[in-house]
Amino acid sequence: MKKVLLDENLPVKLKYRLQDVCDFFTVNDKGWNTLENGELINAMQADGFDFLLTSDKNLQYQQNLEKYSMGFIILNVRDNNYETILPLVPEIKKENIIGIEAPLWSETVSNLKEAEYLIYPRLPGYAEIGWTPVELRNWDNYKVRLASHGERMKAMDISFYPSKLVPWENKDKK
């Protein structure tokens, strides 16, 4: 069963409504009340969590979510009151969790090169999240594998963001 942390911005009662879907924990259950943003996500990663369930729509702007091997479920609700979220609960079932989403904010994209720059190398990262069980995900191993795609993307004239976190030129050659 997937291990999910219910963010502090959501009602604790949700944990009990969803306990047959996943193993839900609250920040209080884990004793992480004093942790903030990045510290909380790092603690989740170390403890083997699969997802963070939150209503914080700004999380993706506050944290570099790509560096984590877990998923983030962000509820798009007008407020975080239990009564507002309760109608969504019947839709949160194991059989309805079928994959991942890879959003692209395209308001400012005017051509294919700009779209590619926003898509790559995130696309292989989303594939890694979707295909690799969380217990097998490892950033240090993944970034070397990702680096091996750099030459291929260059050869295909794909515009991509060369993150400084990835050893594009220093990859292991086997």
Write structural notes for this entry.
A 4-stranded parallel beta sheet has the order 2-1-3-4. The protein has 174 residues and is of the alpha/beta class. It is 36% helix and 9% strand. The mean pLDDT is 83. Helix 1 (13-17) links the parallel strand 1 (3-6) and strand 2. It is built from 8 helices and 4 strands; from the N terminus they run βαβααβαβαααα. The chain has helices at residues 13-17, 27-30, 37-46, 59-62, 82-85, 112-119, 122-131, 139-155; strands at 3-6, 23-26, 51-54, 71-74. It has 2 domains: 3-96; 104-174, no CATH class.
What keyword list fits this structure?
9% strand, 4 strands, alpha/beta, 174 residues
Mean pLDDT across all amino acids: 83
| Uncertain spans | none
Number of distinct helices:
8
The major β-sheet equals: 4 strands, parallel
Strand order of the largest sheet: 2-1-3-4
Question: How does the helix and strand content classify structurally?
Answer: alpha/beta
Instruction: Give the overall shape, derived from the CA principal axes.
Output: globular
